Amino acid sequence: MSLSSVASKTFTSTLAGVALAAGTMIVPVAVNAVEANRADDITVTAHRGASSYAPENTLAAFAVGIEQRADWIESDVQATKDGELVLMHDTTLSRTTDVEQRFPGRSPWNVKDFTLAEIKTLDAGSWFGEKYAGEPVPTLKEMVEQVRPTRSGILMELKSPELYPGIEKKVAAEFDSFPGYVPAAVAAGRLAVQSFDFDSMKTYKRIQPEVPVGLLGTPAYADLDSYTWADQINPHFGSFDAGYVARVHALGMHIHSWTVNDAATMSAVLDRGVDGIITNNPDVLREVIAGRRTPSLDLGDAA
Fold first, then answer.
1. How many domains does the chain have?
2. Which of 35, 79, 133, 243 is in Cβ range 3.0-4.6 Å of 164 for a Cys bridge?
3. What is the pLDDT of residues 29-64, one digit of tens each?
4. Same-domain check for residues 56 and 13
5. What does the alpha-carbon distance between residue 101 and residue 279 come to, in Å, rounded to a whole number?
6. Are residues 129 and 51 in the same domain?
7. Predicted local confidence at residue 38, as pLDDT
8. Whether residue 89 lies in the annotated active site
9. DSSP-assigned letters across all residues of the chain
10. What's the pLDDT score for residue 277?
């Protein structure tokens, strides 16, 4: 729970006490509304960029996410045949590029089997729409260059790290290659990494301990205290309840749920007390959050 949440709860309790002492009635907006109104604490994460509006994991999608005021831009990093870091969700290039047309004899078109130069010839936008024809597969470096000057941060998933021995060190080194970036981004809450591979996150934590790490998935409730070396537990929205969130918070970790794209489900997930939501539609989540803000109370006549 953030300091602002604690402050809000303390203020509400004090206000109720003052009202009771004065023999006046207090409107029952207080505890539940303030607890549900953690609007300023909710982290909005653009999943593979604002991927409902532009081709996923491209600079175009990241730009829309930034425009829609995402706190974090989420992406997936993998390594090329020559060891360069590119952003791609699938371990093959087929779904989101024209690799099968450009390199017809290279099945199954794994990311790790192509050099960066080869991947840079691919069209990663046409599958989504003509407007994005020719959109390239970006590198991690290009993403940092794009996002760093903005108010948005980066949530980077290490995708299938078992395929890329040493990728944790490579990602950390790429972040460190930007002077001053890591300490400034961490201090501002604008940098974290995550993975379904918990051992990979342990490795990353040893290499770059100042950067928060998240565990994708839903560890068993009874096992959560085994994962307090991590900073986040990031589960699918259908796999946990409010009690699970409370336990994660009690252990000092945060929880960001994925991938939630409609307003009704966003609101239901927020009701469980999560710290953030990962979505293809950052603009929709912003609207939901805005709708949860409660009006300020006028205490002028409280006495």
1. 2
2. 79
3. 333 444 444 667 899 999 999 999 999 999 999 999
4. no
5. 31
6. yes
7. 64
8. yes
9. --HHHHHHHHHHHHHHHHHHHTT----TTHHHHHHH--GGGPEEEETTTTTTTS-TTSHHHHHHHHHTT-SEEEEEEEE-TTS-EEE-SSSBSTTTS-HHHHSTTSTT-BGGGS-HHHHTTS-SSTTT-GGGTTPPPPBHHHHHHHHTTSS-EEEEEE-SGGGSTTHHHHHHHHHHTSTTHHHHHHHTT-EEEEES-HHHHHHHHHHSTTS-EEEES---GGGGGGGTTSSEEE-BTTS--HHHHHHHHHTT-EEEEB---SHHHHHHHHHTT-SEEEES-HHHHHHHHHHHPPPPP--TT--
10. 99
Q: Answer whether residue 229 is part of any domain.
A: yes
Which entry of 47, 236, 249, 256 is annotated as an active-site residue? 47
Question: Which pLDDT score, from 0 to 100, does residue 296 have?
Answer: 53
Domain that holds residue 74: 42-292
| Residues in Cβ contact with 99 at an 8 Å cutoff, skipping those fewer than 6 apart | 93, 106, 109, 114, 122
Q: Same domain for 62 and 12?
A: no
pTM of the model: 0.86
Give yes or no: 254 in active site. no
Same domain flag for 162 and 249: yes
The pLDDT assigned to 122 comes to: 99
What's the CATH code of the domain at 185? 3.20.20.190
Low-confidence ranges of the chain (pLDDT < 70): 1-39, 295-303
Q: What is the pLDDT of residues 71-80, one digit of tens each?
A: 999 999 999 9
